[in-house]
Amino acid sequence: MTDSPYLEAVALSKRYEDGVLALDRVSFGVRPGQIYAMLGANGAGKTTTINIFLNLIDPSEGEARIGGIVTHREPLEAKAHVAYVSENVMLYGNFTAMQNLEFFARLSGKHHYSRDDYHDILRRVGLSDDVHYKKVRGFSKGMRQKCGIAIAILKDAPAILLDEPTSGLDPKAGWEFCRLLESLRQEGKAILMSTHDIFRAKEIADTIAIMKEGRLVMEQPAGELAHLDLEKLYMEYMAGHNGPMPAEA
Amino acid sequence: MFRVLVTKELKAILLSPRFVGTFMVGAVLILLSVYVGIQEYRAAVDHAQTSQLLSDQGLQEATSWMSASTRAYRAPDPMTIFVSGLAFDIGRWTPISTRTGVRLRHSLYSDEPMYAVFRFVDFSLIVVVVMSLFALLFTYDAVSGEREDGTLKLVFSHPVSRAHYLLAKASGAWLGLAAALAVPTALAVLMVVVYGIPLGWQDWLRLTLLLGLAALFCGSFVMIGLLLSACTRHSSVSFLTGLMVWVALTLIVPRIGVLTAGQLTNVPTVAEIQGQREAFARDQWDKFMRDGIGRWQGNTDSLGEEALLARIQTEDSLRRQVETNISDYETRQYADLRRKSERRERLALSLARLSPVSAFQIGAMTLAGTDLDMKPRFESAMDAYRAQFTDYVGQRQSESPGAGGMRIEFNSETGMKISNPRDAGALDISGLPKYVSPRFDLAPAVGSLALDFGVLALGLLGCLFGAVMLFSRYDVR
Description:
With about 250 residues, chain A is of the alpha/beta class. Helix content of chain A is about 35%, strand content about 25%. Chain A has a domain at about 1-80 and about 155-165 and about 195-250: 3-Layer(aba) Sandwich (Rossmann fold), CATH 3.40.50.300. The longest helix of chain A is centred in the last third of the chain and has 16 residues, at about 170-185. Chain A is globular and about 50 Å long. The longest helix of chain B is centred in the last third of the chain and has 48 residues, at about 305-350. Chain B contains 15 helices and four strands. Chain B has helices at about 1-15, 15-60, 110, 115, 125-140, 145-150, 150-155, 160-195, 200-230, 235-265, 270-295, 305-350, 355-370, 375-400, 445-470, and strands at about 70-75, 95, 405-410, 415-420. In chain B, the strands form two sheets. In chain B, strands 1-2 form a two-stranded antiparallel ribbon. A two-stranded antiparallel sheet of chain B has the order 3-4. Chains A and B meet through helix 2, strand 6, helix 3 and helix 5 of A and helix 1 and helix 7 of B.
C-alpha cells in the first residue's frame, strides 16, 4: 500500500435544495490496496458521498478526488478511474449477461476483451456457464450483483465504489463477495464501501468509519477494533455519541 | 463511445416487442395503402382515357362547329398513390366550349360519397398518424424509463457525456424506426414498379424527397419524445404528456392556425361580394334610368328617323357602358377576394407550420402536386386550352358559315320547314388541338419545400437543444 490516498474526500459538504444538510465537512482518504467501510444508518450520508465521487451530484463545498482529479471539475476523466457497484444492480433486462458485460466494458473504453474473457470473468464472480447467455431479466438479485461486480472488474479501474453491495445477499453469496473483494484489494484497488453489515465490514475492511447525520463520527483501522465490540460501539454512536472521532482523540 | 451507445440502443430496440409491433403494423398499413393507391390510380387513368374518348366521339357527332364542345380531363399523377392530398376533392374534368368558362367539377368524392365517408388512407397519412406515434413510443421512456429501471445511474458511473448519451438515444430510436419501416416501404415502391406505374426521373426525385421528408418528420417526433422523457421523472408521465402533445400537434395546432388566420384577415364571403355587386348594379341602373328620363323628356315625335336612330344607338351604347361598369366592378371585387383569400391562405399555412404535422403534410402535398395549387394549376392549363379550342372552332365556323343552328323556313306553297343543317358528315376533329394535362414541375415548388424541410429541421434541432439543456440538469439517481 502507498501512503497517498487514491480516493479522497476533502471537507465534503452537501446541502440539498430543500435545505437538508446531507454531508457536513466530511474528510477521509482511501489508499490503493485498502478497503474503507462506511457504516451508518439510512440518511447518514453514505450514498451521498458515493454519488459525489461519481459526480451524480455536485458538492456544496469541499472536493471529492479520484487519483487527484476533482470529480466535479473533470467528471468524465474522474469516472474513467473508478468502478461502481450499487446496492441493487440493475442491468438491461432484454440483454444477456454477456451482452451487458460487453456493453459496459466498451462503455469503459475496453474494446480488447474477447468472448472468453467475458466467460472467465463471469465464472470468477460465481456465475455458471449456463446463465451466461440468459437474459438478465430473470436473474435473482444475487446474480445481478455478481454481474455488477463483473462489470466493475472488467473496467479495471484503480478505484471501486460499492454502495451497500452485500445488502440482500444470502450468506454464501456474501461470503463469496468478500473473497472477491479481498482479491481486488490484493490487486491494489482502492475500495470505498458503504454498508449496514457491521460484521462483514469488520471481517474485510482495513478502515471502518461511522457516519451519522452527514458527519464522520468515527474512523478507526479495523485492526484496532478487533478487540472491541463493534456492534456496541456502533450503537453507542447511533444513540448520540457526537464527540470527536476516536482517531483524533 | 457514441458508437457503443448507438449500437446498444439499436440492439435494445430491435430486441423489444415494440419493434416487432411497429414492423407488423407498418408493413400491413404501408403495403395495403400503396396497393389500394395503385388500384385507384389505374382506375382514374382508365376513367380519364375512356371519358376523353367518349367526349371526342360526342364532338364528332355534333351538328356543327357552332355547338361544338368537349371535355378536358385532369390526368392522374402517379404520386397520388403516396399522397392523395386534394386529388379526390377536386373535380376531375371541365367542359370546354366557346360559351362556358373552365371550372373543374365532379370530384371522386362528390360522385362516390362512400369514398368520402371512409377517406383514402395513403402513405402520408400513415406517416402523420402512425409513424409519429411510433416515434413517440420509441423514445418516451428513453431517459425516465432508464432512471426507473436503475440503469441510468450505472451508465453514468462510466465516462459518458450527457449530450452523447442523448444523441445516441435519438439516433438509435430513429434508426430502429427506420429499420422497422424500411422493408415495407421498399416493398411498396417495388410494387409500384411491378404494376408498371409510369414514373419519370422527376417522379423518382419527388418520391425520394418525400421519403426524406418523412424521415425528417419522424426524427422530429423522436426528438419530441426524447425532450419529454428528459423533463419527466416517470415514464408514465412522459407517455401521457407525449399523447397530449401528439393530439395538440396533429389535431389542434393546424386548425388553430387556420382559425387564427380567419380572425386576423378580413375576407368577404362570396355572398357578400354578390350582394355588393347587386347593390352596385342597382345603383348603376337606377342612375341610367333617371338619366334616361331626362334624356327622353320633350317631344320625340318631332325627331326625324335618323335622329331617333342615333338617339337609340346612344342609348344602347350607354346601356352597354353600364353593363361594362358592372362587369368591371364584379371583376375587381373577385380579384380583391382572390388576393385576400390568398393572403389568408398564406397566413394560415404559416401558422399551421408551427406543428411538424402541418409542415410535413404541406410539404408532402407540394411534392405530390396535390396541394392547394393543384386546382388553379389545372384550371389555368384548361383555360389556355379553351382559348385554343375557341380560336379553332371560330376558324372552322367561318369556313362553313351556312352550317349550324336550326333553320326555319316559311313558304306559302310548301308550308313551314325546319331543318338542322350540319357540316358534311361527322366533324373532322383531326386538326383540333388536344388537351395535354400539365406535368408537375418541381422547380416552382422548391421555395415552399425548402420552407417545410427547414421548419422540420429547425423543430428537430430545437427539441434536441431543449433535451440536452434539460438533461444536463437531470438527476439520474
